[in-house]
Design brief:
- This protein has helices at about 5-35, 40-45, 130-139, and strands spanning about 40, 55-60, 65-70, 70-80, 85-90, 100-110, 115-120.
- It contains 3 helices and 7 strands, in the order αβαββββββα.
- The longest helix is centred in the N-terminal third of the chain and has 31 residues, at about 5-35.
- The chain has a 5-stranded mixed barrel.
- The protein has 2 domains: about 1-35; about 40-120, Beta Barrel (OB fold (Dihydrolipoamide Acetyltransferase, E2P)).
- The protein is elongated, with a radius of gyration of 24 Å.
Length: about 140
């Protein structure tokens, strides 16, 4: 029915498609394992199961909630509906302050307590580093 060349081309195209599908599925599987999901305090309250999986929690640092000790920082993140207590050991970023946005990366111990391994302070689109601001003011 079909010639040898047609069968060979069909087999070659089929082999390329299978290889492409396998490659894409392997890439997506590896990315899925390395993705850290960002959750708000309200989304954490809704969670049905708490796993020992690394996640990111984000929101605003509640006013008058920062408690700094020599090796530990405690604060509360809020999304103006719910709150979660954060404990972090380490140096916080310069942009970290009350009333500012923050993302904490770490492990959820329960629905009200989060042990952070990394703090990422967020800034708005108008932020300018102090050095750049000073250089612009001189000109």
């Amino acid at each position: 029915m079909y010639g040898r060349k047609v069968k060979l081309r069909f087999f070659f195209v089929l082999l390329i498609l299978i290889t492409l599908i396998l490659t894409v599925s392997l890439i997506l599987k590896s990315l899925e394992e390395n993705v850290l999901y960002f959750k708000s305090p309200t989304e954490i309250k809704i969670l049905s199961n708490i796993k020992e999986k690394k996640i990111r929690v984000g929101g605003m640092v509640k006013i008058n909630s920062i408690s700094m000790k020599p090796k530990e920082v405690k604060f509360i993140i809020t999304d103006f509906k719910n709150e979660i207590n954060i404990v972090y050991s380490g140096v916080v970023p310069n942009l970290f302050a009350e009333g500012k946005g923050v993302v904490a990366e770490g492990y959820l111990k329960d629905k009200n307590f989060f042990l952070a391994t990394k703090i990422l302070a967020k800034h708005d689109e108008n932020y300018m580093p102090p050095e750049v601001k000073a250089a612009l003011e001189e000109k």
